[in-house]
Amino acid sequence: MHNKALKEKLIKNVKKEVKQIMEEAVTKKFVHEESASITSLCAAVEACVSHGLKRRALGLFKSSSTTALLHKIAKAFQPAANVVQLIAEVENCDPNNEKLYVCLFLSHTNNITCSNTRLAISSRLSLSLHTNYYRRSSSSGGSESASKLGVKPPLQKRNSVATMKYLWIRLALIEKHLAKIVDYIVANSSKYYEKDALVADPDYGTILSSLLVGPCALDYSKLRTAEHFWTDPPADELVQRHRISSGQFPLPASPPAHKRPGLHYKGSTGFSNSDDNMRSKDYVESLHQNSKSTLLYGKNNVVVYMKDGSEPLAGYLSLHQCGEALLLKWTPNQLMNGCTDTGVHEKSVYWEHALNVAVHETVYVHCHQGPDSDWIALVGQDGVQRPPIHFPRGGHLLAFLSCLENGLLPHGILDPPLWSQRGKGKFTYHGVNQKKTNVSATNLLVDITSKVFPKLKRKGSSRFHSSTSPLAREESTTEDLISEKGASDFVFRIVYPNFTRTYPQVEDMLEYPVWQSSPSTPKSSIPPTTPRSTPLHSVSTTSSTSSSRSLDQQCSVQEPGEPIQVVCQTMKKQIISRAFYGWLAHCRHLRTVRTHLVGLVRSDIVKSECPTDATPGLTEEKWKELQASGSVDMKEIYRLVYFGGMAHSLRKQLWPIMLSGKLEGEDPEALRREYEDKMSEWLAVEAIVRQRDKETMAQNLAKLSSEGGNSSDPQPSPKVLQTHESNEAWRNTSIKGEPKVFVDAEETLSSEPTDGNRSQKLRSVESTTASPLKTSILSEKRAENGDVANIKASNSSNSPREKPREVSFQSDAPVFFDPSPNKHDEDDDSDVSSGEESPVATRGGVYSNEILESFGLNLHRIDKDVKRCDRNHWYFTESNLDKLRNVMCTYVWEHMEMGYVQGMCDLAAPLLVILDDEAIAYGCFRNLMERMSANFPSGGGAMDAHFANMRSLLQVLDHDLFALIRQNGDYTHFYFCYRWFLLDFKREFSYDDVFLVWETIWAARHIASADYGLFLALALLAYYRDIILANSMDFTDIIKFFNEMAERHDAKAILQIARSLVLQLQTLIENK
Amino acid sequence: MATRKKVLLKVIILGDSGVGKTSLMNQYVNKKFSNQYKATIGADFLTKEVMVDDRIVTMQIWDTAGQERFQSLGVAFYRGADCCVLVFDVSAPNTFKSLDSWRDEFLIQASPRDPENFPFVLVGNKVDLDNRAVPQKRGQQWAQSKNNMPYFETSAKEGINVEQAFQTIAKNALAQETEVDIYNEFPDHITINNDSRNVRSDNCSC
């Protein structure tokens, strides 16, 4: 009968989609609203519900007929009314406006902030609708043409309006009302449907409503935007989730907020047909060794027998380690070998057969040996058995098992252990099972592996793993019966004894009846046994921990029927050997710590509580107190600041002291003079550079507009600049004026009396050093200050124009330095250092083209960065940004060999904010850079040293985290810490916290650790370690996380952790 | 993480400091322009999902520090890139001149499989400014000379042409992705063994 067949088909379709969605729920742990399976299910339900619908009954409603039906029943049935209300909200939100959907979709409004959450939900729903609509469109012409071609859910021809048709079904499903509504429709079918309608059918109607109960039980309430679906959750969400879930540690790969649906459905992975191509490729890619997962085992031509009795399929079996989870995958050859030979339909059949098993959800591994192949069957926690996997002959089963065992480490083990003993070349299998006497099953795999397998035993053990369900219990009993017949079968249980690094099986041993009845105690005279020698895979254990672990697994090995005494002896040995290896590991560990890390902390531990409690920090009262006491001890200041920071009001006064390390600080007058000198030097150069830039620019413009692609060098030939040109340049700029620069110059040159004397001195010195340019510039500088008389004199002094041309600065540098000792004697001592440091800042003052060019380049960079440095901070107004620029330029002028490197601005800015004085900020910055410059590229490679130290420290202080970092694509290069170290955490904390963090770092140098930054970095990791571990973050995840968390850390808590880490290392080293 | 996306296109944005790399990235991903960006230190990235042909892919767009001093860091960040975007400032000829060195440096550090055909896209940013100094023709010529890479003139500030540029970037990156034959790397050559079909077809009956 035709109608019957149609109904059959309709119901079958619903079944298929329900199955699909339930599988997705299980394999993905949650179902996204965007999931294509939801749309497919909606389409299938729609088809059923609209079958045989009486049009007349609904009369007035012209929209979608099933929607009309819904409106009709809404009057009598509350859940339907709720859904109707929801639909109204969605439609009001954007009334059937496709364009809006497109906009929503394309713009990815990740934060739809509607005051009405319902509205937000609805708009996201429509967003997801449209996403689906795009994803399902089979056009290859891109999104533009998609709207014309329409979507193609099963059964019906669709256009975009059709997608909207499912709206009520979708909403009802997500609101978990769908089953109820369909049930109601079925119950009242006579009103609305023809007699032969599907819902009116006594069987199909009930089937339909009961089919929908499952999908309605799923939790879709975790709304995820389209963006969430494709990307990792933002840092905020991670932190939030962690707060919610903190306490018990969640399993990796299942973030806590993803509530698992209540159903545990086990089966082969389902793949929706619509995304087949994309998915299949990705799936196959996932079989490879990649950054996210390690391939532990791979074998081709492994045969799987499907439960439905279809013929066996050969495929590729692989074992993957993803974070801490193990995944077993089996993929039919038909899928592995490309898609050319099979049709689309056939392929989807194969996808249904592909296996994807999470090992942590598997409790038993049943191993069987047959005459021509070995096979295993996996039994899950719920007792459901997977299709058996047959290995080809030749020891593959054993290889697989040992890979599995290694993969399970460190948290899980095979029980009984599959282990080899060094020297004996033996493998021993233990079958643990319920109330069974020992059944030895020798010669198990002997013929296959050509190794000796002496024993397979069933040890009496009444303990049963808590996670084992009654079903599994039943399963194992059946298994017992079978295995009695043939000895070639045995069972392994997968156990996760303990997630911590204790000795997991000690309790087990104590529970063991034999042990309890034994009065003997271990004697220390018994020598330790040799440790197990199973090769460790890429599992995250160091030698120290793995040795103790491998010993654990040895403990359950005894021969059957041995006298109790022997058993006790064995145990004694094991206990002692464990102790011995524990001690050995500890010694090794300490040796590493001492050799590598001893230099990182100071050996003397400074306590916070003596002589006084330092935790309140250096308050104003405390500072007054210290000053009143007469002699201020720097050490005490450091101690107070280290443990509690200082009062904000003290910073201006104390920062220069802390940075110089001298109580008296630097002489501000000398500093100021030096600063002004430097500034006048580079201001002159800047003027030249400016002028030349203008010329070059004009030149370029002319050239570019005339001849397009010719990339000839626009720079003038590299010879010494003519004084004529430069002088003109200078005059031009000084006449036109760069007002802001000169305003600042005036400010800084305001200390009149000394300045006047000095300028006289300087001039006399400089005129002897054949530097007409310099002199002229300087004197014009003075002219700006009102010293007009000098202009003519200086201008007349630069008459020998050709002279400087012969002098190449680079080659003649020593010559230029020669006269300077003279000057140094006359000058203040604060000048001495700078004269030596800087090859550029010669008093000679003729600047080679190279110097001009390179300073010009630096100026551009400084300008670019100063402009955008902390411009959202209240302090950095135009004029204060100019101050920052001056400090920067002066420093760079003094350190031309290094030049300006990005990040310097960031380091200078907080100093300027606190000190609000260019010269002093400059002095402090110079002091700060003495330490920090090594971090900058080409500054001395301190960064690499930091990373290396991070590696060592993390290994010692937080091994688990280190293991994760190494495992997840190995980012132990620690490049994600780059900005932390380069900027001394300046961008990691909010501005106010930066002050505290910085002074703590400075103080720590003197009383705790010269590399306190390392401990801060570790503290940042430690603070979020659980989140990092729980989400099994890789390099990109961690970069994203910390970039998003920047300036939002709890500085006090992190400093506290850092201090305790320092103390921890200090104690570790001290207790030799 | 459980929500990890599968098709991921890694895009690296390179160019001198201040040409607007961060702004371009943010304009494209967040549709926002801010004048509050600081100089990028280290590296940052944003992700965005796009439709390329009929597929949804995730673009992971990496924004790097512009000063050439930091290039040594590149190794860690460039690895596995699917496309490289070279950005210059049309008002600053120097940023145009350094394109060659950025391109070379990228090819050295990322060492892509097929450097000859690795997809680059050239972007001349800041076309909204009046003081343009690099004519369009020059940009085109350079792009043509380098394996005919696509060239876009954009303004991250005004949002001009940004979307189009990144669409092309995504497209080219995806093309690059799919060209790589995934089966090449497969550990074992697989042959369907017909003999294995005569194995007993019972289920594990334990």
UniProtKB/TrEMBL annotation, chain A:
Highest taxon in the source lineage: Eukaryota
Residue stretches making up the RUN domain: 32-227
SUPFAM superfamilies: RUN domain-like, Ypt/Rab-GAP domain of gyp1p
Pfam families referenced in this protein's UniProt entry, alphabetically: PH_RBD, RabGAP-TBC, RUN
Keyword Cell inner membrane recorded: no
Stretches the record annotates as Disordered: 459-480, 517-556, 704-843
Biased composition (Low complexity): 517-550
Record-stated family: Belongs to the RUTBC family.
Name of this protein: Small G protein signaling modulator 2
Species whose genome carries this gene: Orchesella cincta (Springtail)
UniProtKB/TrEMBL annotation, chain B:
Keyword GTP-binding among UniProt keywords: yes
Single GO molecular function: GTP binding
Coiled coil: none
PROSITE patterns assigned to the protein according to its UniProt record, in alphabetical order: RAB (PS51419), RAS (PS51421), RHO (PS51420)
Localization (cell): Late endosome membrane
Claim: Flavoprotein is one of the keywords in the record: no
BP GO annotations: endosome to lysosome transport; phagosome-lysosome fusion
Protein family according to the UniProt entry: Belongs to the small GTPase superfamily. Rab family.
Name used for this protein in its record: Ras-related protein Rab-7a
Organism: Orchesella cincta
Species classification: Eukaryota, Metazoa, Ecdysozoa, Arthropoda, Hexapoda
